[in-house]
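Inverse folding, one chain.
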């Protein structure tokens, strides 16, 4: 928790937040990076006590700003979860699309086999003619068998090509979804790393402003002021 006084963010009995408090986490349009930059500016722009490492910082605006960042951080994680969910939906659609293409290819193959039944009927008719014209029937039989084999090979080739095309399209869709999700997640990861870096810098700046025990003993008159500035809010 960023504040010592967490009750400032608790809603009242009606479920509403007190006036002049920060909006809830459902608010949109908050630039987390910009708000962190503002925290850094508030620290760096605060007045420094001459001849000391102490800065005079208005506590309320700083704590309000930290609360704003804390409340809106979950939206960044929700965005990452939404990207993963969209990826899964795209993969499911790709699988369904590939299955539809395979089923269409199988139906086409069955249709071609049915058409080949007509050729088999022609073979039976050729068999009847064979008794009358043996030589002519043999020539027609060889030609018919050759045509059947060609059509069978052609049907197998078309089926294989359609299967390969369906698998390639499904793989392309999956790779595209993976690449898109990875780019978005990398961008979010970079933003979160930048946020953490700014927060660490702010904490280091605040810690560097705390006086050493020797300075506090030497300057007894200013000890109460420094203690008040650095003590947590009760």
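Residues assigned per position:
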């Amino acid at each position: 928790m960023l504040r010592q006084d967490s009750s400032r963010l608790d809603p009242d009995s009606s479920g509403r937040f007190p006036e002049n408090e920060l909006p809830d986490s459902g608010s949109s349009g908050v630039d987390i990076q910009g708000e962190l930059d503002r925290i850094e500016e508030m620290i760096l722009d605060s007045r420094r006590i001459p001849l000391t490492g102490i800065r005079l910082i208005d506590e309320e605006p700083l704590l309000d700003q930290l609360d704003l960042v804390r409340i809106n951080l979950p939206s960044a994680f929700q965005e990452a979860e939404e990207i993963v969910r969209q990826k899964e939906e795209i993969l499911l659609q790709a699988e369904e699309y590939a299955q539809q293409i395979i089923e269409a290819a199988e139906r086409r193959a069955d249709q071609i086999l049915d058409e080949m039944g007509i050729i088999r009927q022609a073979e039976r008719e050729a068999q009847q003619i064979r008794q009358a014209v043996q030589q002519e029937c043999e020539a027609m039989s060889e030609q018919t068998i050759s045509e059947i084999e060609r059509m069978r090979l052609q049907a197998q080739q078309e089926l294989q090509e359609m299967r390969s095309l369906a698998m390639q399209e499904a793989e392309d869709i999956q790779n595209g979804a993976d690449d898109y999700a990875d780019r978005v997640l990398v961008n979010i990861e970079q933003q979160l790393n930048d946020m953490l870096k700014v927060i660490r810098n702010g904490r280091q700046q605040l810690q560097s402003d705390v006086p050493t025990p020797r300075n506090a003993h030497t300057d007894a008159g200013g000890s109460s002021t420094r203690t008040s500035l650095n003590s947590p809010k009760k």
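Residues 134-208 form the longest helix (75 residues). The first strand starts at residue 47 and ends at 48.
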